[in-house]
Amino acid sequence: MQAWRVRSLGPPDEVLSLEGTPEPSPGPGEVVIQTEAAALNFPDILVCRGEYQERPPLPFTPGMEAAGRVVSAGAGVSITEGSRVAGICRLPHGGFAEHAVLGAEELFEIPDEIPSATAAAMVVTYQTGLVGLHRRAGLRAGETLLVHAGAGGIGSAAIQIGLATGARVVATAGGAEKVKACRALGADLAIDYRTDDFVAAVRDFTAGRGADVIYDPVGGETFDLSRRAVAFEGRIVVVGFTGGSITQAPTNHALIKNYSIVGLHLALYWTRRPRYIADVYRTLLRLYAEGSVDPLISERIDLTEVPKALNSMALRETIGKIVVTKE
User: Fold this and answer.
1) For the purposes of burial, counting CB atoms within 10 Å of the CB of 145, is it exposed (0-12), middle (13-18) or buried (19 or more)?
2) Which stretch is the leader sequence (predicted)?
3) Which regions of the chain are under pLDDT 50?
4) For residue 104, what are the domain limits?
5) What confidence score (pLDDT) does residue 327 get?
């Protein structure tokens, strides 16, 4: 089979090599799928660089989320061959290959009405949104949600989940095209952080109160500014650091303004709360059936285009999700 392999760490477009490799075999609690779709995520870039929380042994095939048909199953797995599934890939056999390995407790069966590309794009970013906004932040109807990087994969999912929860959603994005994408997703207010002061805009939008929940996958200066935009009893959800820098949170400021800083490490739920993740998938399927969520897929690419697409993502040139697909 053909698979992108990383044999040394570095930028994806420098270290990825498309190779012919043997098809993987499933271990206990795992399935092998014939990959029909694999969605790109920012952590795919970090894992190639060796900068992600989890570092698979070299060589490995990246790709966190994929969808396809089960071709074989390991011990203890009840899913039958031929079933359509989507879920989390288990490295070193990631989704950027013709076959991938998924954990049986980290996948869901795909209803016929959901295309494989859509299903693959609903795994990581929408799990992150539901866990971050519902479980960690306790977002409630009527509250104001501020989503940073709203036009990206993580942000676009959070906008949809926030609206489905009944929140008023404010989104930030860089540039007119991305701001337009946030508005098209339904954001009540979209702010170009390159030209406008989002702190002032949020305060004006909330009559001085600030945002009840701030969803931050960027970090750095964005996190520092967010502390000025958070409401009394607000919650800032730390999702990631795509901005490249990790800031220190001054606890005296959190005390004085009476807000919470909440961390989210999604992968811990896959191993420590698998039953909860199954509930998350059921919620996502319900929201999709209701028309409340639908991944913003901006590009469908061939397997050979993965390194170029990851490079564009690293440069923040992309909107929504990019999906490798055969559809």
Assistant:
1) buried
2) none
3) none
4) 2-122+295-325
5) 61
CA distances from 213 to 44, 51, 147, 168, 308 (A): 27, 28, 8, 10, 34
Left (φ > 0), alpha (ψ -120 to 50) or beta: where does 319 sit?
beta
Do 111 and 18 lie in one domain? The reply is yes
Q: Which residues contact 233 (CB under 8 A, 6 or more apart)?
A: 212, 258, 259, 260
Distances from the Cα of 314 to the Cαs of 11, 12, 192, 201, in angstroms? Answer: 9, 9, 19, 28
* Total tally of structural domains belonging to the chain: 2
Residue 96's identity, in one-letter code, is: F
Is-contact 179 159, C-beta < 8 A?
A: no
**pLDDT for 110:** 94
Q: Tell whether 58 and 84 lie within a shared domain.
A: yes
Q: Report whether 137 contacts 212 (CB < 8 A).
A: no
Specify the pLDDT at position 244. 66
**Both tokens of residue 13?**
């477009």
Domain co-membership, 24 together with 112: yes
d(CA 73, CA 6): 25
Rounded to two decimals, the pTM is 0.94
DSSP reduced 3-state for 163: helix
Q: Which string of DSSP letters, residue by residue, matches 252-267?
A: HHHHHHT-EEEE--HH
Q: Which helix (H) or strand (E) covers residue 238, if one does?
A: strand 230-238
**What is the CATH number for 309?**
3.90.180.10
Give whole-number Cα distances, 209 to 101, 230, 291, in Å: 47, 8, 31
Is 286 inside any structural domain? Answer: no
Q: pLDDT by residue (tens digit) across 108-124?
A: 999 999 999 999 999 99
Structure tokens at 302: 């061939």
- Helix, strand, or coil (residue 161): helix
